[in-house]
Amino acid sequence: MDDHHHTSSPQVESQTLPADPARRRFMQGTLASTAALGSLGAASLAQAQTELKRSTINHYHIPATDQTVHWGYFSKSLTPLVEVESGDFVTIETVTHHAYDDYERMIKGDPGVESIYYWDHTRKGVNRRGAGPVDASLFGRGAGEGLGVHICTGPVAVKGAEPGDILEVRILDVQPRPCANPAYKGKSFGSNAAAWWGFHYNDMLEEPKPREVITIYEVDATGERDWAKALYNFRWVPQTDPFGVVHKTIDYPGVPVDHSKVQENWGVLKHVRIPIRPHFGVIGVAPKEADIVDSIPPSYTGGNIDNWRIGKEATMYYPVAVAGALFSVGDPHASQGDSELCGTAIECSLTGTFQLILHKQAALKGTPLESLTYPLLETRTAFLVHGFSFPNYLADLGANAQSEIYQKSSIDLALRDAFRKMRHFLMTTQRLSEDEAVSLMSVGVDFGVTQVVDGNWGIHALIKKSLFVGGEG
Amino acid sequence: MDDHHHTSSPQVESQTLPADPARRRFMQGTLASTAALGSLGAASLAQAQTELKRSTINHYHIPATDQTVHWGYFSKSLTPLVEVESGDFVTIETVTHHAYDDYERMIKGDPGVESIYYWDHTRKGVNRRGAGPVDASLFGRGAGEGLGVHICTGPVAVKGAEPGDILEVRILDVQPRPCANPAYKGKSFGSNAAAWWGFHYNDMLEEPKPREVITIYEVDATGERDWAKALYNFRWVPQTDPFGVVHKTIDYPGVPVDHSKVQENWGVLKHVRIPIRPHFGVIGVAPKEADIVDSIPPSYTGGNIDNWRIGKEATMYYPVAVAGALFSVGDPHASQGDSELCGTAIECSLTGTFQLILHKQAALKGTPLESLTYPLLETRTAFLVHGFSFPNYLADLGANAQSEIYQKSSIDLALRDAFRKMRHFLMTTQRLSEDEAVSLMSVGVDFGVTQVVDGNWGIHALIKKSLFVGGEG
């Protein structure tokens, strides 16, 4: 515990799990952000429930290491790193699964990231990567087969959470992870892979077709610059991993890219500044429908929603599906456009500070959260619902859901789901009739393309809080 | 000509066609807005071509009357109301095709609107409504059969315009049309119809299913209030038009709604304020592929794009398809959400002031507009391309295109088209490589749902101008 983590009331006690003093420097100043708690606004859905009656609130710190991440999957069977109480704070480091696209800028010198990516001819720091078989008996790509790709930090258990409850997750702060290589002090880096799962891949103009192209972006880690810039790009060429498996395409996460084999093209996107929108592509709780679940398709428990608005000052509400909720975070992005068209964002390691608040089912009666069965996003200015091709694909598609979802991607279906969810949101939280909700949706709700690259494609519907004048009075 | 329409240089001469002094009051002050011309910014695509060498620029005024509108269709065979020269201004009144949903608030006392909607047992002010047969031999609904619904004012011919040229349309001002009924002085009104062509129609919760519901909104016409509010709604019941045809659903535009037969529910959406976004749902030039073209599906010539960003200070660029371009405007909206989910926006009569600038094909070589084959939108802060299920459905779907398009609506297809157009835009206007464009689209371009109710469904892609620092230097 140190002085940075004191507030007057309630008292915050600070714990780092597991202990890793080297990571503590990222935590400084996060508590200043927690002062923003009270400013979430009168329109905040769960306002009434946030008066916590505890005198001490804990603030946990979870560094990202080979011991604290699960790679490529959610699982209700994972042992929690920590069990928090409702109201506690957790600062969680997250590491991008694209860091080995540029080892010098995204791994080197960072003990946590090095431990995760460690891979020699005998051993990987994290062996299983994905929800596939550990013996790689399907495709021979590697343990987990890359059926699921995101490095997720967690899970965090929430004491007393049970199916039927709602977990509120307030994102209080998000910071880029500074590069640990002294050559690039003060900077962070991200990778954008235009990959085989991108919307563009079978629809190219120029030769060679098809091709995968990785673009490395630079992000300012000091917070002074609010834009990212591209440094260089290179075309993916077959890469042989330390176990001897050749990866002709980007088919397994964390494969070391040998830069002696690729051609770096510098000076790309020379006059373009990408506004940064730091956020977590993957953030959510464990589903109950299967034991090991591919991290790629989003679902009712959240996960890989890939909405760039899930950043600082946003709040997510999730239906709890398993005991303890089992909250995990990963897939950090420095920026992304609505659609994530080419398959990835600017994939860049980030550290977030979260407050987890449990709403017990019994206390939900009569509240706006009573019948929430989908992940709901509240930003400072808006509410958003997330529609998917299949709202709960694991249940909707049956035993082979995890492979079939990729054959059934459709934004037409996702729009249908987003429409139904926004109608439900307006009728339950704003107590509108169906006719009122439908008219309002047509004249005052904006539907956007969240992503078309995650199997279970997404459409979000956004309504500004400022429309509800009654809600402010 | 009056003093309101003078500027120092170039001189603006004012003409009203046809003469209708009663409408002149709407024109006052529009010239102040034209001073905004120079402020479209360094990033304006066509900046270099706007130094007009003429000493006199005309400002035409086109009131909306039964003599100046074509209802429900575009046509290359229409006689232009006026022929303007490149650089001229045109103030155009537009009237919503939903005005008869509330005669007292949207028609009564307004000679222009009354002339358009006139309908007794012997005669209609405007007989043909839609691209269908004038003898109503298909469905017996009425002349034109309502295959196309929008009241369009125009066309305006542009002198010297030929296929291959680009027409730039600058929207300098947009104002609501004040209610002419003294009982509602200072107000304007709009109608939102949740209709059978809406995305929600076959997916309702409450009985009776299905149903059509019209909501009447009030808009401030004085410009002091930037939001609309709902007044009341009513369920559509069969309406008998003055020719004796019964309309069980909203199947023909301009059918008088007998309010003694509907139940008005007042106080709906009581605590909701809809931010106004005045814009033109239909705005574009005549296509060449067919003679009489249904006004509903948008296409490469624009038309019913239904993007709420096509309002004041926006600029549209269209490929010219026929001699004279034949520019028309209609389907005025006080506000709309991205998707126009239930079938309509807040349909509310508006008056717009436009400057039309012709870019001859020969002068396009080497400019960003050289290979533009789709309608491009430039706002103060962004560029947008519009993807459709079929980019030129009249050509893509062949002889039966005008009926088949409604069977083939898909936002999955529209996203494909929007992706290709944004890639083209970035590669041509910003001179990016394909790989640069694809990466940028994934990390800095937002794709949204324009509309899912116009047959040829739309997805737009938006990129902010601020990303291009080079373009500003």
If you had to describe this structure to a student in words, what would you say it looks like?
Two copies of one chain form a homodimer. Chain A is an alpha+beta fold and 473 residues long. Chain A has nine helices and 26 strands. In chain A, strands 1-2-6-22-8-19-23-24-26-25 form a ten-stranded mixed beta sheet. In chain A, strands 3, 5, 7, 16, 18, 20 and 21 form a seven-stranded mixed beta sheet that branches. In chain A, helix 7 crosses helix 8. The relative contact order of chain A is 0.16. The N terminus of chain A is likely disordered. At the A-B interface, strand 10, strand 11, strand 15, helix 7 and helix 8 of A face strand 10, strand 11, strand 15, helix 6 and helix 7 of B.
Largest sheet geometry of chain A = 10 strands, mixed
The number of distinct β-strands of chain A equals: 26
Q: What is the radius of gyration of chain A?
A: 21 Å
Tell me, rounded to a whole number, the average pLDDT of chain A: 91
Largest interface, counted by CB within 8 Å of the partner chain's CB: A-B, 70 and 69 residues
Q: What general outline of chain A do the C-alpha atoms trace?
A: globular
Total helices of chain A: the number is 9
- What is the rounded distance between the termini of chain A? 41 Å
Kindly estimate the percentage of residues of chain A that lie in beta strands according to DSSP.
Answer: 25-35%
Secondary structure: helix percent of chain A: 10-25%
